[in-house]
From TrEMBL:
NCBIfam families: flavo_cyto_c, PRK06481.1. This is Cytochrome C. One of its GO terms (molecular function) is steroid dehydrogenase activity, acting on the CH-CH group of donors. Its cofactor is FAD. Residues 20-442 form the FAD-dependent oxidoreductase 2 FAD-binding domain. Pfam families: FAD_binding_2 (PF00890). It comes from Companilactobacillus heilongjiangensis. SUPFAM superfamilies: FAD/NAD(P)-binding domain, Succinate dehydrogenase/fumarate reductase flavoprotein, catalytic domain. Belongs to the FAD-dependent oxidoreductase 2 family. FRD/SDH subfamily. Keywords: Coiled coil, FAD, Flavoprotein, Oxidoreductase. Residues 342-369 form a coiled coil. It comes from the Bacteria. The keyword Flavoprotein applies. The keyword Flavoprotein applies.
């Protein structure tokens, strides 16, 4: 077996006082932007405030959406940019920024190829809620995408010798004559680092109680799937230099989060995409499980606060590697039979058996007369042992953020670019409208991370 790769952050003594571009954040967007900028001949630096690298990206489990890819054709799936655009637009309540959405949907395939050229192969395909076509790309090992992507991108950061410092928190952006000139940051001491361009890749504010209190105080009592560093620093940094923020009240509550332990674990949409159903305490289905996150969350909330159970079998479990991990940390209940499982989770066994047998019939006929589900019906629930995972909604993703154009330039209130300031990833607002589709956030980090690296190069040329 290959030796486990361990990334060593750059030693603080090596921090220089000047770079071509400072990239704030080491998630998917920051790492991609850095590699792209380096490959164009620039000298980037990545500053990460946490001692753990990879941000929320490491927690992503389902995959990366893209249309018209060669991987899809290998799976005999014929897709189009237009359908990808339309399904994302409808899923986002038609509130998406259409300029960003167009760029996003038309550049996913290039991003998949770019990753493949970097030995990051996403050769398997699944589906997420709100999509009609299988376009969620993931590694053929079926491993969760986030950890895989971050590890593989870090290998390039190491190979390209791109400096990446952890435990450095950017506290201010420096402006000179209306142009970005660098950053102020807290390392062991306060430091100033000069650069003619900065890329904000700081992620969202799903763990930022102050911003949630300001924009969505109704969600303050919910748990979050986010890493503790997801506090919206990038939004505050950008606002201080005049950037416009958009859609700040659009916060995604993810429907399926296991939260009976001190940690809140997101149970990825691929679990439903591969065939799991949701049942209430009475053992009955109550929603099209692959409706958009917004609608599935509402259906679970309407149950009255007790949450619901994902139900699956061995066959489905084998299609999602993350379930092994969920089981390992004690989140999965097992029954050799459906009746045994029902007893374990305190649900009426006859009811659960009836529900599953009706569902299996729907899968067979490809016709869900109860809730109109049309996707994630490739396999039924008949291959024991059977599994249940108790879930409830939790704060997951912040759709709002800094305004950018499709060149990733950060815009001020008047819609004009702030010279030298770029942004990519969750820190950006507008792409997802009022509901982000599963698989679109990883895609966003790679598509717009690459674009930011390229546009910085153009800006500096
Ligand atoms: P994306 O998916 O958009 O790449 P992530 O959440 O994966 O976003 O990564 C964002 C990263 O930015 C996180 O690792 C977070 O800790 C880091 N970060 C946030 N604010 C700062 C800051 N002020 N200085 C340095 N790093 C930051």
């Amino acid at each position: 077996m290959a030796e486990k790769f361990v990334f060593e952050p750059t030693k603080i003594e090596q921090l220089k006082d000047h770079y071509d571009v400072i990239i704030i954040g080491s998630g998917g967007a920051g790492l991609t932007a850095a590699i792209q900028a380096h490959e164009l001949g620039l000298s980037p630096v990545i500053l990460e405030k946490m001692d753990k690298l990879g941000g929320n990206t490491t927690r992503a489990s389902s995959g990366m959406n893209a249309a018209e890819t060669s991987v899809q054709l290998d799976h005999k799936i014929v897709d189009s940019f237009e359908e990808f655009y339309n399904e994302t637009y409808v899923g986002g309540g038609k509130q998406n920024n259409t300029e960003l959405l167009k760029f996003f949907t038309e550049h996913g395939a290039l991003a998949i190829d770019w990753l493949a050229q970097h030995d990051i192969k996403l050769d398997d395909i699944t589906i997420t809620g709100g999509m009609k076509t299988m376009r969620t790309h993931r590694p053929s090992t079926l491993a969760p995408i986030g950890g895989y992507l971050v590890t593989e991108l870090l290998k390039w950061i190491a190979k390209d010798e791109i400096p990446l410092f952890d435990n450095i928190k950017v506290t201010d952006l420096l402006l000179e004559d209306g142009h970005i000139a660098g950053v102020k940051a807290d390392a062991a001491n306060e430091v100033q680092i000069k650069a003619p361009s900065v890329i904000l890749a700081t992620g969202g504010f799903g763990a930022g109680k102050d911003l949630l209190a300001k924009y969505r105080s109704d969600l303050l009592n919910l748990r979050t799937t986010n890493q503790p560093g997801a506090t919206g620093d990038g939004l505050k940094l950008a606002e201080k230099v005049g950037a416009k923020l958009v859609d700040m009240d659009q916060v995604q509550v993810h429907p399926t989060v296991q939260q009976d332990t001190p940690h809140a674990f997101l149970i990825g949409e691929a679990v439903r995409g591969e065939g799991a159903i949701l049942v209430n305490n009475a053992g009955q289905r109550f929603v099209n499980e692959l409706d958009t996150r917004k609608n599935v969350t509402k259906a679970i909330d309407d149950l009255g606060g007790t949450g619901a159970y994902l139900i699956l079998d061995r066959d489905i479990r084998n299609r999602v590697k993350a379930i092994e991990f969920y089981d390992h940390v004690g989140l999965v209940t097992t029954g050799q039979t459906i009746a045994e499982l029902a007893a374990e989770i305190n649900v009426n066994a006859d009811k659960l058996e009836q529900t599953i047998s009706k569902w299996n019939q729907a899968v067979k006929n490809h016709n869900d007369t109860d809730f109109g589900r049309t996707t994630g019906m490739e396999r039924d629930i008949s291959d024991g042992p059977f599994y249940a995972i108790h879930i409830a909604p939790a704060v997951h993703y912040t759709m709002g953020g800094v305004a950018i154009n499709h060149q990733t330039q950060v815009l001020n209130e008047a819609g004009k670019a702030i010279a030298g300031l770029f942004a990519a990833g969750e820190v950006v607002g507008g792409l997802h409208g009022n509901n982000r589709i599963g698989g679109n956030s990883i895609a966003e980090t790679v598509v717009f991370g690459r674009q930011a690296g390229q546009q910085v190069f153009k800006y500096l040329s």
